[in-house]
Amino acid sequence: MIFRQLFEEDSSTYTYLLACEETGECVLIDPVIDTAERDLATLNDLGLNLTYTLETHIHADHLTGALKLKALTNSQIVVPAMDELPCADLGVQEGTAFKVGNIELHPLFTPGHTGTHHAYLLDNGMQHVLFTGDALLIEACGRTDFQSGDAVKLYKSITEKFFTLPDETLVYPAHDYEGRQITTIGQEKNRNPRVGDNRPQDEFVDIMHGLDLPYPRKIDFAVPGNELCGQCPDDVPEEYRGPCDTISLPMTEKRLRKSGDQG
Amino acid sequence: MIFRQLFEEDSSTYTYLLACEETGECVLIDPVIDTAERDLATLNDLGLNLTYTLETHIHADHLTGALKLKALTNSQIVVPAMDELPCADLGVQEGTAFKVGNIELHPLFTPGHTGTHHAYLLDNGMQHVLFTGDALLIEACGRTDFQSGDAVKLYKSITEKFFTLPDETLVYPAHDYEGRQITTIGQEKNRNPRVGDNRPQDEFVDIMHGLDLPYPRKIDFAVPGNELCGQCPDDVPEEYRGPCDTISLPMTEKRLRKSGDQG
Fold first, then answer.
1. Cβ–Cβ contacts within 10 Å for residue A160, how many?
2. Residue B199: CB partners within 8 Å, gap ≥ 6?
3. Which pLDDT score, from 0 to 100, does residue A259 have?
4. Which residue does chain A place closest to B190, by CA atoms?
5. Would you state the pLDDT for residue B165?
6. The pLDDT of residue B254
7. Which of A251-255, B55-59, B258-262 shows the lowest mean pLDDT across its residues?
8. Chain A CB within 8 Å of residue B259 CB
9. Measured at the alpha carbon of residue A155, what is the angle toward residues A152 and A156, in degrees to the nearest 5?
10. What residues contact B186, with CB distance under 8 A and at least 6 apart?
11. pLDDT of A234 above 90
């Protein structure tokens, strides 16, 4: 398996590249529209063509690169099935492995940060690697104050779905804001200040309800844009338009061609 | 590959178990005498027989479990060749991979914590995993004030041998004192408070020389004992004798038998 951890600075997002060496199939988990070209250059350097993009959830802090990458590579857009996004090509759900060549990713329904959040577990008997999305971060977790967030559900997702995995399980989160890259299940069970050290649910809920976080910068255009798999809505503020403008032409051409309306 | 990260509480030491699934051969990196039985129980649960013990360096903070494990399982004792320990069965050196079945561990001569310290890199093209011993710890590093320690050499070991590896390289240290289990090369390049963020050598040396650490509790018996691969010297203080007493009988029997002096 080829693996790369890629970082998008503006939203501190980690995008993960996994590729099956035997078949050449590959996936980008949580790609960001701003770094779509960088991601494609990385794939190109590795001699890979993008097969899939895969979302953990509908993001509020960045636009997904899914639609832009599909426009540029014809990759398939994969999202949690319960998101019911008409723009997606495939839906995944807990209980059915999503296969990227010989790599099996097991979707784990882990609501709490959003109502339909999923994590992805790679467990081939030898390696235990968990992509936690925004549900569990390094010594932190995703906020629960918007998008059907629910602190009780997040507590159950973390303690019942994640903390029951082997302690050595490598944890790759969707974000880190302090230059960290990785943690493990054991490390978070020991050290996570919100949910580690067997903290009870009611204390976790009190912590989450007391965070008093600022309103997300990009949520007003990111959520509707991501419900369209990364389409740039018309109301993207000027300072965030850049990555949208660069895709408008190929996307429009491709989509019109595909729809048969023109050309 | 089977992998386990095992912890010895008194010295906060991580012992690593690696086993080749194809051949059943396995190694314990930096086993501790106090937890030798626990390690063997883990191996037993996995259906494995111990093939090798492998040391990163001559420890000052615990007695190695190498000799005890050899007495109990007939495992071979592997150490850096430049340690020139007559008690060892095999010596490893940089430039020659040490093979445990199909697992190749590449020794990296990384002096500074001790004069002959080695790290071990597992790099099969797909996985990059580095066992750093005491040279690089999570947001820390080994001390340099005894056993031919040298802050300039440690700086070069970390920046020239470790920080030139891919950022995604998983870093498993020989110790953590705060419940952490893992880091990466990229994370330490970013965040290590002593050597990260491109800190220059002279500043690192000043930090190391200013640490003013207490005299190690076990050094007076651990170093001579580890120069005998984990033989308990007569002057082990009573409070640390426990794991020594439990091995004296089988070790003596075995060694006498092997030497042909008796029985």
1. 10
2. none
3. 37
4. A179
5. 96
6. 38
7. B258-262
8. no
9. 90
10. A5, A181, B167, B168, B169
11. no
Q: Are strands A98-100 and A103-109 parallel, antiparallel or unpaired?
A: antiparallel
pLDDT for the residue numbered A247: 56
Q: What is the mean pLDDT of chain B?
A: 92
Q: What is the mean pLDDT of residues B201-222?
A: 96
- Residue B125 pLDDT greater than 90, yes or no: no
Q: Rounded distance, CA A21 to CA A17, Å?
A: 12
Whole-angstrom Cα distance, residue A102 to residue A127? Answer: 14
Judged by DSSP in three states, B142 sits in coil
**CA nearest neighbour of A182 among B3, B128, B170:** B170
Contact call for A179 and B187, based on CB within 8 A? yes
Task: Supply the angle between the helices B36-45 and B66-73 in degrees, to the nearest 10.
Answer: 50
The 3 state secondary structure assigned to A2-57 is EEEEEEECCCCEEEEEEECCCCCCEEEECCEHHHHHHHHHHHHHCCCCCCEEECCC
Residue of B nearest to A191 (CA): B179
B102 touches chain A (CB under 8 A): no
Query: Whole-model pTM?
Result: 0.87
Q: Which of the four pLDDT bands, split at 50, 70 and 90, describes residue B224? A: very high
Chain A CB contacts of B191 under 8 Å are 178-180
A 175-214 residues inside an 8 A Cβ radius of B: 178-184, 186-187, 190-191
Q: Closest by alpha carbon to B27, among B57, B58, B65, B60?
A: B65
**pLDDT(B257) > 60:** no
CA distance A131 to B11: 32
Domain at B2-246: CATH code:
3.60.15.10
Q: What is the predicted pLDDT for the residue at A248?
A: 47
Report CB contact under 8 Å: A1, B182: no
Which CATH class, in words, describes the domain spanning A2-259?
Answer: alpha beta
pLDDT tens-digit map of B69-100: 999 999 999 999 999 999 999 999 999 999 99
Taking the alpha carbons at both ends of chain B, their separation in whole angstroms is 40
ipTM of the complex: 0.81
CA distances from B116 to B12, B90, B94 (A): 22, 15, 11
Q: Nearest residue of B to residue A197 by CA position?
A: B179
CB contact set of B56 (below 8 Å; sequence gap of 6+) = B29, B30, B117, B118, B119, B120, B131, B132, B133, B134, B135, B174
Q: List chain B domain ranges.
A: 2-246
- B33's CB contacts (< 8 A; 6+ apart) are B62, B63, B64, B65, B68, B230, B232, B243, B244, B247
Contacts of B4 in chain A (CB under 8 A): 168
The alpha carbon torsion through A51, A56, A62, A65 (nearest 10 deg) reads: 10
